[in-house]
């Protein structure tokens, strides 16, 4: 199997179970093993073993329960690479009962790709913000332009940039833009010219790109951002203009606390405080922010939205600091 389609999933809700079934049932139609695809679900949360039995899905999957180990992504990947079976089935790796963030499943899938010498690795969120057919369209495009032995990463461009906003005290589009600014500032400012959609929920990397990725000491929520920074810093090629249609996002594992944690982890790893990012965004919104939410807004309105994020983030960090002191 030279091409991997990996999903990262937190199995905990009715919708997540529906998404799991959709991945399994749609695999052979959209990513048939006969075409060299292996589909892997890196899964945390509920153990789906009994569910597979109850729903008569056990013959559609190869299931690996590594959760009791609570091992590192590298170790789980090593064991999987030596023991996986019936690769034509959907490979389901249950790595932990608790959600460990976005970095762990990404790192796990990258290690697996390296260990089995996969030429290409796609990593997708499992919420089907991008439909199966759209994921396949992006993968086909990537395969048409990316030499597996050259460092290439593909991020599709969402149209529209669909985000779940329920119960959010901030503008999520603005928050994404601020997070993306870390990539611009830490890799190559020339990337700003096209403002890639780094958080589309899907990335595809070549074998050469996977070999150079290193997630050591990277925060639990910032692996995808760190991956983009590494590839661009190492003069890899960024495919960023392939447009995809999105479904409305009804449920997200990225809540406000997670977004604040991402900012905190970016600061701790790269030592760039959010205040520096905010200053640049406010001074040059047309340069750093996407117009899918800024268009039609005055500079003052944009400033209010950005400063609101800074205020809420500072409040979150202060609460966490107090919790740490009291414990």
Question: What do these coordinates show?
Answer:
This protein is α/β, with parallel strands linked by helices. The protein has a domain of 216 residues: Spore Coat Polysaccharide Biosynthesis Protein SpsA, Chain A (Alpha-Beta Complex). The protein is 47% helix and 16% strand. The protein contains 13 helices and ten strands. An eight-stranded mixed β-sheet has the order 3-4-2-1-5-8-6-9, sandwiched between helices. The chain has a two-stranded parallel sheet with strand order 7-10. Helix 6 runs parallel beside helix 8. The longest helix is centred in the C-terminal third of the chain and has 28 residues. The termini are far apart. The model has no long low-confidence stretch (mean pLDDT 93).
Write the layout of secondary structure elements.
Layout: E1 3-11, H1 14-30, E2 37-45, H2 49-54, E3 61-65, H3 73-83, E4 90-96, H4 103-115, E5 120-125, H5 132-145, E6 152-154, E7 157-159, H6 172-186, E8 202-206, H7 207-212, H8 223-233, E9 237-239, E10 243-245, H9 256-270, H10 274-283, H11 285-288, H12 291-294, H13 299-326
Parallel strand pairs: 1-2, 1-5, 2-4, 3-4, 6-9, 7-10
Antiparallel strand pairs: 5-8, 6-8
Helix pairs in contact: 3-4, 6-8, 6-9, 10-13
């Amino acid at each position: 199997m030279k091409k991997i389609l990996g999903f990262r999933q937190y199995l905990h809700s009715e919708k997540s179970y529906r998404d799991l079934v959709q991945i399994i049932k749609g695999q052979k139609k959209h990513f048939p093993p006969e075409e060299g695809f292996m589909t892997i679900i890196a899964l945390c949360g509920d153990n789906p073993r009994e569910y597979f039995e109850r729903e008569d899905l056990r013959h559609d999957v190869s299931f690996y329960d590594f959760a009791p180990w609570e091992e590192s992504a590298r170790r789980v990947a090593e064991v999987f690479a030596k023991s996986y079976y019936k690769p034509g089935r959907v490979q389901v790796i249950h790595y932990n009962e608790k959600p460990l963030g976005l970095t762990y499943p990404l790192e796990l899938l990258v290690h697996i790709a390296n260990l089995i010498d996969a030429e290409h690795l796609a990593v997708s969120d499992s919420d089907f913000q991008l439909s199966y057919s759209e994921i396949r369209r992006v993968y086909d495009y990537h395969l048409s332009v990316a030499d597996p032995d050259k460092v290439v990463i593909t991020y599709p461009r969402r149209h529209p940039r669909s985000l779940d906003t329920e119960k959010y005290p901030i503008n999520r589009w603005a928050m994404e833009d601020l997070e993306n600014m870390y990539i611009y500032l830490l890799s190559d400012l020339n990337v700003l010219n096209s403002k890639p959609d780094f958080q589309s929920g899907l990335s595809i990397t070549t074998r050469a790109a996977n070999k150079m990725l290193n997630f050591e000491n990277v925060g639990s929520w910032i692996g995808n951002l760190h991956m983009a920074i590494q590839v661009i810093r190492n003069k890899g090629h960024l495919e960023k203009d392939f447009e995809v249609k999105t479904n409305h996002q009804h449920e997200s594992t990225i809540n406000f606390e997670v977004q604040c944690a991402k900012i905190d982890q970016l600061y701790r790893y790269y030592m760039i405080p959010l205040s520096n990012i905010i200053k640049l965004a406010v001074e040059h919104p047309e340069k750093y922010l996407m117009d899918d939410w800024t268009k039609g807004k005055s500079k003052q309105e944009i400033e209010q939205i950005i400063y609101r994020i800074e205020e809420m983030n500072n409040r979150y960090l202060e609460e966490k600091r107090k919790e740490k002191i009291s414990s």
